[in-house]
Amino acid sequence: MYFLLSLSLSLSLSLSLSLPLRCDHGYGGAHCVPLAPLPSILREDFNENLAAEQWPEVYGAERGTLSGEPLKSGTALIFKGEGLRMLVSRDLDCTSMLYIQFSFKFITKGVPERSHSVLLQYSVNGGISWLLLDEFYFPTSTDTLFLHLPLPARAQTNATRFRLWQPYNSGKKEEVWVIDDLIIDGSSFNNPPVVSDNFEGGPQDYNWLFYPGGNTGLYCPYQKSGLEESAMVFLSSELGEHSITTRDIDVNENTIIQFEINVGCTADSSASNPVRLEFSRNFGATWHLLVPLCSGGPQPSSLCSTELHPASVYYPGTTQGWRREVIHFGKLRLCGSIRFRWYQGFYSSSTSPPTWALDSVYIGPQCQDMCNGHGTCVRGTHCICDPGYSGADCSQPDTLNPDFLKEDFEGGAMDAERFRLLSGGKHSRKCGIMSSGNHLFFSEDGLRMLVTNDMDLSNARFVQFFLRLGCGKASPDPRSQPVLLQFSVDGGLTWGLLQDFLFSNSSNQARLVALEIPLRARTTSTRLRWWQPSENGHFYSPWVIDQLVVGGSASGWGPLEDDFSSMDGRSWLLHPGGTRMPVCGSDGAAFAFIEKSNTRYAVTTDISLGQDAFIQFDFSASCSVTNSCYAIELEYSLDLGLSWQPLVRDCLPTSPDCSSYTLQRLLVADTYNKWGRVTLPIPTYARSVTC
Ligand SMILES: [Ca+2]
Ligand SMILES: [Ca+2]
Ligand SMILES: [Ca+2]
């Protein structure tokens, strides 16, 4: 007894004398403490050979896939050794460490005994003794599990190591377990409240937890502006999960999330495999859409009270390919420590989802007025304005925006001069509105939206277009969501509703829509959008739009004079069947209606008329005497063309208040079988009282 005690004493004496020589590399002092702070984060995707510095001890495990399928992405660590199965981490600075988490799968043939549990343990004394953090026991095989374990206070030392250990196993053929995407983290506490990455020269790893399936590279680069063309690309052919997850970041009502995304590099939109932007308040245990769909229907979400907008779900398609999204947290009512992810799905070898890419991500304080929607916010301090805008807050257009837009959709592709986004619709002859020609036919799944460029509508009067909701003779499906017409005066950051157009039994007949532009939309930088909401990217009925005109003059316009020698799109809003050409010996070009068109008419823009206004024109119904007998109506409208009345009313000598003899059927073929001049005073009833 005495001898033993003496030995023990001498041993401890000798230990204390030789301690400085026996500390491991990187440790020193009387108690072998770390000489420099240890790493406070450990992140491992097991896609490459394990670094001995991170993982000093690995037994009974090797990297691989499960019959070719990844657990999350690339290779995982598979524990299938017959003997000892253990993975031991390096010491970490866990003083502010919060959690350990990893993906885990247990595969067994029989029902293992309880002793075959996998233990998660930690040691705060260099591996001399180990304490249990959790025990994972599974009586059957599991799906891929996401395990999240908060660190106990006792583990929060400046040198804590961890190990996964299965004390007993039934061997390779009976029992295997797999881990992937492991993270031990607590550094979020010290992280700046900004995530910013443009992926030039690779991702900035401290911003991201994992990006399974992602690699930096070029994607659709010819459509991108600027030189920062490298993006985080998720190739169709990558197996496993396609997602990218930020670290936890503190957000508040002043935070924005801004990014550029391109799903599919295609103009064909579809509802399959969209990318969802989600958030988690609980370190990734559960995820929710960051922005819910606000479609105007019965809304349980109070987030939909102020604005109708799509969800943060990004479908393949859109003409421009790349687009910038900016989401302001003021309307989301989110604050605290939150992580975000862009998530497409998990893909096995039999599927091929569209390739997508993410770029220019910024999460942090907003810039001044959110750059008015016309610029990119840089670290909350300044804006880089889009081409065409300048000023500290990008509010100044370099040149005046166009104050007139007229589009008949006859061209084959979207006119980038007029529209900034088209998704879910194509120029087509299907489901016709006018008797001939193309229109914009929305029949695709995914996102259905048309957005104009910014216009100067400060003095504009109306927006008008033909709309047909549903095709064919049968009534459209009553489940179809209405088409919304919205406007934005802040570069697309927020949207107000102009009108919604409901599908009904009769909505599959083309009709003219004409709306007065409200005062709040009359700015020098207003854009319009047509959008049909959808919960899942699927739709019940198609719709078409054609003959779009935005313009007119709120302060009055006129007089209208036209000798048809040149094209003046502003004077004539619609003229189906009409062309400018010399006809019947006219003096130069005339406005001729010679096409075999079912519909033939010409409509002027709104004209301001004074007390002594008159209308005068040369008219010819044919070039010679013919037997055909028909008349052309001359009508006026006081309500943007929705309803029409004859300009001239029958005035017979028997009528007491007629000063002169006129007939409503004024422009008849037998009278005007050659050119003749018509001059008429505009009657009082044809003048709007508001003018
Ligand atoms: Ca992996
Ligand atoms: Ca980039
Ligand atoms: Ca057309």
TrEMBL record:
Oligomer of disulfide-linked homodimers. Keywords: Calcium, Cell adhesion, Developmental protein, Disulfide bond, EGF-like domain, Extracellular matrix, Hydrolase, Metal-binding, Protease, Secreted, Serine protease, Signal, Zinc. It is found in: Secreted, Extracellular space, Extracellular matrix. One of its GO terms (biological process) is central nervous system development. Belongs to the reelin family. InterPro entries: EGF, Reelin, Reelin_subrepeat-B, Sialidase_sf. The keyword Glycoprotein does not apply. This is Reelin. Residues 1-18 form the signal peptide. Residues 363-395 form the EGF-like domain. Coiled coil: none annotated. It holds the Pfam family Reelin_subrepeat-B. GO terms for molecular function: lipoprotein particle receptor binding; metal ion binding; serine-type peptidase activity. Extracellular matrix serine protease secreted by pioneer neurons that plays a role in layering of neurons in the cerebral cortex and cerebellum by coordinating cell positioning during neurodevelopment. Regulates microtubule function in neurons and neuronal migration. Binding to the extracellular domains of lipoprotein receptors VLDLR and LRP8/APOER2 induces tyrosine phosphorylation of DAB1 and modulation of TAU phosphorylation. Affects migration of sympathetic preganglionic neurons in the spinal cord, where it seems to act as a barrier to neuronal migration.
